[in-house]
Amino acid sequence: MILGLAVLGNPEYEILPWHQTLLTIAIVAFSAFFNIFFAARLPITEAIVLVLHIAGVFVIIIPLWVTAPRGNAYDTIFKFTNGGGWDSDGLSYVIGIVPMIGMLIVSTPDVCLAVTTNKKRSS
Question: What angle separates helix 2-9 from helix 17-37, to the nearest 10 degrees?
Fold first, then answer.
């Protein structure tokens, strides 16, 4: 997303593979630095990030909601498009739903682990 914003701000910018690698290394180094030296401040940091995240959702959603063009409700709910150029609409829909299924599969064990951990603590 960071490199995408760079391209959005400067259309002449060309993303090279080493840019992505360097950005990934920087993010990992920052995370390691924070966890080594500021681990005691993690709860307050999480609270601040939570407040910023919730406020950011409203800062983004409200202007989009107010300024978005209004569409026909029938087209919004019942019109499907095959923008990927796949052979059939069904194949396009199945490929499009794979990331959503992946999010559900990844988040479910986390929730189950949290529930199990909380039950063990309370008993």
Answer: 130
Q: How many CB atoms lie within 10 A of CB 65?
A: 8
pTM of the model as a whole: 0.47
Q: pLDDT, tens digit, for every residue of 45-66?
A: 999 999 999 999 999 999 999 9
Q: How far apart are CA 13 and CA 5, in angstroms?
A: 10
Cβ atoms of 53 and 64 within 8 Å: the answer is no
Q: Where are the domains of the chain?
A: 80-123
